[in-house]
Amino acid sequence: MIEELKKHLEAVEAFQADTAEALEAFRIEYLGKKGHLSTFFAALKDIPKEEKKEFGQTVNTLKNAANAKWEALKAELESRTATEARYGDLTRPGAPMPVGSRHPISLVRDQIISIFSGIGFTVSEGPEIEDDWHNFTALNLPEYHPARDMQDTFFIQTDPDILLRTHTSSVQVRYMEQHKPPIRTISPGRVYRNEAISARSHCFFHQVEGLYIDKGVSFADLKQTLQYFTKALFGKSRIRLRPSYFPFTEPSAEVDVYWGLETETDYKITKGTGWLEIMGCGMVDPNVLENCGIDSKEYSGFAFGMGIDRIALLLYQIPDIRLLSENDVRFLKQFKNAL
Ligand code: DAH
What's the mean per-residue pLDDT of the chain? Predict the structure, then answer.
């Protein structure tokens, strides 16, 4: 009998209840009118005299333990019920957090950065509010150049020297003023032009500028770099360099990548030629090097500049440039899985 009592004692001490029902069942089993304790107390009178004392003490211990357990679990369940009433079930799975998406401009910019980082280019930045020197004069842009036209440039009314930069080439100048060759840097950023907004053009957009200055840099280095880049970004390595003019490079070229003419879209975006213009480039004009404090007899280099928005429209087949700045979530959320 005493062994049985001790087993019950162990069971009572180990007991846990998750629900009010389980606790009530415990109460009935031990403390109820027909429960174990009643049975043991009733048995007391039949116990031989010499065992009575120990038996009685053990039944009392069991009674106290069962009462204490019941009180403790009851208090615990009540406080849990109160917490749940206030906060709900704290063990429930959390509400899913909506995952955001990266903007297509950021996606393309980061891809370009990663491609050029692979061949030793750093990333540099400059201000969007520029002065005449960095945006125009240092870049060999004479005063009569059309890029200076009031139609193209947003000037600050009270100070004709201050403007919103029209290209990221201004960062070239700042970088050369602050660093000695060898220089290998790309400068992504936003630029502004006073243009009518349409599906194809906006009054602000994004560019990446590239600059490479060292001893003995040649046009062949430029071409190889661009070929590596177009292969990495578009998976296409056939490029052509069309002679062009930029005041800050000599010679200058426009870069076309061979896109192909396989689908109807290919025809549309390449206007039936298969070729797509993606950037301007050239050998940095010696005047520009000298303007920035670099000896043009010792050093040469190349530069290039491309529009990020146009590339994003192309890669993600976005039909209207305005979508890039309207922040419509129905548009943005489509880039959740984009790389
Ligand atoms: N700054 C030019 C533009 O905005 C792009 C460009 C052309 C940048 C040739 C260059 C370059 O560095 O060499 O259209």
Answer: 92
Check: CB of residue 43 under 8 Å from CB of residue 1: yes
For ligand 1, mutation pick of 169, 223, 306, 309 (most atoms within 8 Å of CB): 169
Per-residue pLDDT band at 339 (split at 50, 70, 90): low
For residue 162, the SS3 value is: strand
Structure-token pair, residue 224: 């190889």
Q: Determine the Cα–Cα distance for residues 302 and 283; give it in Å rounded to an integer.
A: 4
Tell whether ligand 1 has an atom less than 6 A from the beta carbon of residue 253: no
pLDDT, tens only, 102-122: 999 999 999 999 999 999 999
Which domain does 316 fall in, by range? Answer: 104-338
Which residues touch 148 (CB under 8 Å, ≥6 apart)? 136, 141
Cβ atoms of 247 and 141 closer than 8 Å: yes
Cross-strand pairs, 253: 243, 281
Q: What gap in Å lies between CA 228 and CA 222, rounded to an integer? A: 10
Residue 278 lies in a domain: yes
pTM: 0.74
- One domain, residues 66 and 120: no
Of ligand 1's listed atoms, the one at least distance from the Cα of 169 is 1
Q: What is the pLDDT of residue 51?
A: 85
Q: How many CB atoms lie within 10 A of CB 69?
A: 21
Residue 99 domain-assigned?
A: no
Residues 302-312, mean pLDDT to the nearest whole number: 96
**Do residues 189 and 333 both lie within one domain?**
yes
Residue 92 lies in a domain: no
CATH number of the domain at 202, please. Answer: 3.30.930.10
Mutate-to-test residue for ligand 1 from 208, 242, 248, 311, highest number of ligand atoms within 8 A of CB: 248
Sign of CA dihedral 138, 141, 142, 146: negative
**328's tokens:** 């419509």
Quote the number of domains for the chain.
2
What is the token pair recorded at 277? 């213009």
Tell me how far apart the alpha carbons of residues 100 and 333 are, in angstroms, rounded to a whole number: 7
